[in-house]
Amino acid sequence: xxxxxxxxxxxxxxxxxxxxxxxxxxxxxxxxxxxxxxxxxxxxxxxxxxxxxxxxxxxxxxxxxxxxxxxxxxxxxxxxxxxxxxxxxxxxxxxxxxxxxxxxxxxxxxxxxxxxxxxxxxxxxxxxxxxxxxxxxxxxxxxxxxxxxxxxxxxxxxxxxxxxxxxxxxxxxxxxxxxxxxxxxxxxxxxxxxxxxxxxxxxxxxxxxxxxxxxxxxxxxxxxxxxxxxxxxxxxxxxxxxxxxxxxxxxxxxx
Length: 255
Hints:
alpha+beta
């Protein structure tokens, strides 16, 4: 068994400059494997630590996962500074350089199409959160009226609060959908994702939009303007980026 295996970060053009990053995953030097017009950006890593069984255990270790993801994304970001990049999934490992060259040869058309799709372009992310509003605020206690007693009055107030919260939530989703349509019109392509749970966002507000937008590298101001204009009323929008185009450099066409 060989002492090392090949960790794959991304695919780029063969004539792109070497990424300016001193080391990648596990502190390993970053290099390139070239096949025709394509280059795979890789590192040689320990065969035991990155073997199949070890990787399965490591992927359940949050500290390992965070450190590896940071190193992986740092390499991908460095590659993106020099040209188009098609990132691959975290912890993608091949036995040797020949297997990597075979991948580049077999998927040459798909990789080339993915690189052409993102050439000169970047990804921006937008998340939308429902904002507290009068419609969703707790109701003021109503004066007691005859009939039903205090229990019935309490139930009525709770039902009214729930109705207001439902209307506020519906308004937030509607505003998020309108914002998404405007953002998509300003972008070359877009992808939407399932809103994240509050436990992941760390926020009390409900997420109502989670999307990525592909634009030309110098067109970020158009998205920023939409976010500023639409971040009012029922929804608050947050713009992040620019990023390497993870959402759009896949081997499938985005919407």
